[in-house]
Amino acid sequence: MAMFSLRGRRDHLAVVKDEPAGEPSLAERxxxxxxxxxxxxxxxxxxxxxxxxxxxxxxxxxxAGAARFEDGTNLRAWLFRILxxxxxxxxxxxxxxxxxxxxxxxxxxxxxWDAAALDxxxxxxxxxxxxxxxxxxxxxxxVVYLDLEGFSEAETAEILRCAPGTVKxxxxxxxxxxxxxxxxxx
Amino acid sequence: xxxxxxxxIDAALRDHARIAAPRHLHRRxxxxxxGGGRRWVAPSLGAVAGAIVAAAxxxxxxxPAPRDLxxxxxxxxxxxxxxxxxxxxxxASDMHHVKxxxxxxxxxxxxxxxxxxxxxxxxxxxxxxxxxxxAATFVYARRLHVISLFVFEAPDVPAGEQTIRGFHVSxxxxxxxxxxxxSDVSWDDLRMLETRxx
Lengths: 186, 198
Fold this sequence. Notes:
The structure holds 2 protein chains of 2 kinds. Chain A has helices spanning about 25-30, 35-45, 50-65, 75-95, 115-120, 125-135, 140-150, 155-160, 165-185; strands at about 5-10, 10-20. Chain A has 9 helices and 2 strands. By secondary structure, chain A is mostly helical. The longest helix of chain A is centred in the C-terminal third of the chain and has 22 residues, at about 165-185. In chain A, strand 1 (about 5-10) and strand 2 form a beta hairpin. Chain A has a two-stranded antiparallel ribbon with strand order 1-2. Chain A starts with a strand and ends with a helix. Helices cover about 60% and strands about 10% of the residues of chain A. By secondary structure, chain B is of the alpha+beta class. Chain B has 6 helices and 7 strands; from the N terminus they run ααααβαββββββα. Chain B has helices at about 1-15, 25-35, 45-60, 70-85, 95-100, 185-195, and strands spanning about 90, 120-130, 135-140, 145-155, 160-165, 165-175, 175-185. Chain B has a 7-stranded antiparallel β-sheet, sandwiched between helices. In chain B, a hairpin with a 2-residue loop joins strand 6 and strand 7 (about 175-185). The two termini of chain B are about 35 Å apart. Classes of the chains: A mainly alpha, B alpha+beta. At the A-B interface, strand 2, helix 1, helix 2, helix 3 and helix 5 of A face helix 1 and helix 2 of B.
């Protein structure tokens, strides 16, 4: 069984995992996912400053609770789940009510795309994509981003603590909303 | 048509939705969680002096190969300066006007031969300070988008692609020079221009 030792340093805990020499520590392996976590944090928070705080909270919580991580399980999924918990805690502290996505589809999402609209979509820019994602309810942003990161529906369901069927339907509705949002933005 | 729209949206998400963390966040997290000071031994005065000399040699004599992320971050910052600037040092669509303009301003001849075309017209050039050294900037356009190419002396710049704050950056090295291409155009467009430049 993996052993961890926690050393206190003023405002944080540094984690050193007892592993064979040459093996990367849990902290080292966890820090390989900073970019992926930051991307989601940015889409959730909508600005770089809050996204950085959220990622820092995530790592502080994850590595302080490193003993709870089971070796051989999905480290990346574990980190994303902690980021989600941190985000929800921050929202609660700020009395932000997270929007519950409804089942209604924007009528624009089902409108057909003509050739000109499709052509515009080929040249969509990064800022337009970021703006379109920002129009989605928070839970939809999670499923879109986790899908982008290559998580299966089952893995996403585990991260979000919901049923795989919920992930599937949310992803479908999220994509429909993205279609509508991009049509509006373009 | 909706299937095609979905395919294009998926491609746009893959190209644009990932946002790399800023370099200072990487550094801060590494410092905090990798225990930067855990094997701290008070160094002697001589060791400190030696380290300073060694660092100076590394900095001024041996030009170290920049890291991929350093290059990409620098490219995004310099590209934003291009976007915010009121004009370029030389504004011309003719490479034979742009390249001679660099004479006397740089201590190297930037190895760029793509003259621009209908899809990527050349807008001009300028001198930038890139990773602490003078660099040539070539500015191309793609419809209403601006694309900056930075050319700088560097021994070994690895080929790579990154997205930073929504800007796509493609970097590569050739013949002792580093190249960084940056814009908010799609990856397809950026790669198309890169092919013409390489």
